[in-house]
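Researcher: We're teaching a course module on how sequence relates to structure. For the next exercise, students receive a sequence and then see the predicted structure as tokens, so they can try to spot secondary structure elements on their own. Here is the exercise chain.
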Amino acid sequence: MNHQPAATATPAPVVRGTDGRTPAAPPRPRKRPATGALLGLALGDALGLPTEFDDVPSILATCGPWRGMDLPRPAWITDDTQMTLALARGLRTARGRAPIGPVRLARAVREEFVDWYHSPDNNRAPGRTCMTACALLDSGRPWQEASQTGSKGCGANMRVAPLGLAPGLTPEEQAGAAQLQSALTHGHPTALAASDLTAHAVRLLAEGTEVTGLVGRLRSYALRQRRTYHERWLGDLWTRTPSDTGPEEFIARGWDDCLAALDRLTAALRDPAPELDPCLATGEGWIAEEALATALHCFLLFPEEPLLALRRAACTSGDSDSIACLAGAFAGAHLGADAWPDTWTAHLEHRTELMAFGALWDA
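Model: And here is the predicted structure for the students to work with:
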């Protein structure tokens, strides 16, 4: 029997530079989650602007199959992105060179919200709650008197992404600030909790949380926060709703609404149906907890296909621009700035300012 020597693989040659050293591997491209989230938010807003008040059959009749929806040119944004930028400016001012605090943040954000209220560009179907509250903020009264404690509309959590993106905030600062910026206009406990939870979702995705565990981590956070009233940030806001016997009971109502919305989201994702209107499973998004749940629903149907997530969110029977702007923020925080093609971002209104904040927070 002839024994042939076993074949061995030829090792790959080692490439060395002229100095004899092995060159370092090229650096991996940076994710830039803040830039990705802000661009995604504005893209979703612009894509959902023409479809906001239509049902799905009407959207399909106008735009064609939802998987091929294209971005309008120019890509005008709505009050969702306008108020996101107002919050970003206020946050930048409030931080300055000193630690962030409730008085500094409330003063700076209040000023930006009032400027938005008076802006000639504030003609993009702004929400009634925001307009009512901003008119009261403009009167100089304490912000707690301006807060609309009966409203849990999505106008507060649609704009909260900057607080999930700005680096250096402690968990207490992020949660308190997210709830305070909500309370300036939307003082219902569900608006507060949903804003906090939305900012936390953006933070988790920006930090690289696996999408398969995202909903579970959000649920755990909501359970931990359920009876935490951030008095340092909210003051006596809870006393403006006489039905509550204490601050813990007040805020627990909001977290319970958010937990119920997460339960509906979990059920929808067990049997995903991307061709059906997501609003049928998780709500139309006009209220805060539904905007969060339905935006997460659209994002988690297509976590690695951000344009499909935006298109699905924009082709919904509910508050399409708000759902799509949140879905875009989640997708951009998860995938980074390169998620969005230049052929889309080049047409964005306020692109320069969005990218400037992204660069600031990605640095």
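Model: If you want an answer key for the exercise: Residues 247-270 form the longest helix (24 residues). The chain has one domain: 33-362.
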